[in-house]
User: Which sequence fits this backbone?
């Protein structure tokens, strides 16, 4: 169970994939039913905490914790959305993400979150991408992190996903070693895949009709 100790100590990171001894702790967890959707039953009780699906009313708390995560990563200016955007994007007419939250019984507030969304691979089919997981430092070492992993894995299995994906900052070597110990594979090292991003300004340029004629003779 040594990896569980390392897991809760590193629970302010961008992470996923519990393939090892996660289910050994199930005997002390209590599942409970919540909601009628196929993911609604994915909640459980820990000592002093409820781990459940995020709802619209959690967005203010999630936004606050997103900022805390950014501060921990020494990227305080990185978050560029507000709680209203989280509400619209997660609980509007079309949901772009789902998530779980950890709610403290003692303080009656959300102290951690895990956000994910579903993607698609033309080689393997449905996938789940874990965007963030963060737990306030004072609430770590309470098996919240492994519980998030457990429930996200169950959500992936319900949708018949073939894999879980995530990113790790190059500087975050403790997290990288942890994930490798859990069975995660660094695709950059193994297969040579690199993760690229086109920012908003690049999207706007690519959306212009003139982009086709500009690059037609070059590509």
Assistant:
């Amino acid at each position: 169970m040594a990896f569980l100790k390392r897991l809760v100590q590193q629970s302010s990171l961008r992470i996923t994939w519990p393939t090892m001894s996660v289910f050994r702790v199930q005997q002390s967890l209590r599942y409970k039913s919540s909601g009628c959707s196929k993911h609604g039953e994915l909640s459980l009780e820990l000592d002093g905490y409820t781990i459940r699906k995020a709802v619209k009313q959690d967005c203010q708390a999630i936004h606050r914790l997103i900022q805390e995560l950014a501060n921990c990563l020494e990227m305080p200016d990185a978050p560029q959305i507000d709680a209203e955007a989280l509400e619209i994007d997660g609980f509007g007419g079309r949901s772009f993400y789902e998530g779980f939250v950890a709610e403290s019984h003692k303080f009656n507030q959300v102290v951690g979150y895990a956000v994910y969304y579903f993607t698609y691979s033309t080689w393997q089919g449905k996938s789940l991408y874990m965007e963030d997981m963060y737990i306030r430092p004072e609430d770590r070492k309470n098996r919240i992190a492994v519980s998030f992993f457990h429930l996200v894995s169950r959500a992936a299995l319900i949708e018949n996903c073939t894999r879980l994906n995530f990113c790790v900052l190059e500087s975050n070597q403790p997290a990288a070693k942890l994930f490798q110990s859990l069975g995660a594979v660094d695709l950059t090292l193994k297969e040579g895949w690199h993760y690229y991003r086109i920012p908003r300004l690049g999207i706007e340029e690519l959306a212009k009709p003139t982009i086709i004629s500009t690059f037609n003779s070059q590509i």
About this structure: The first strand starts at residue 30 and ends at 31. The CA atoms of residues 18 and 57 lie 28 Å apart. Residues 1-9, 15-28, 33-37 have pLDDT under 50 and may be disordered.
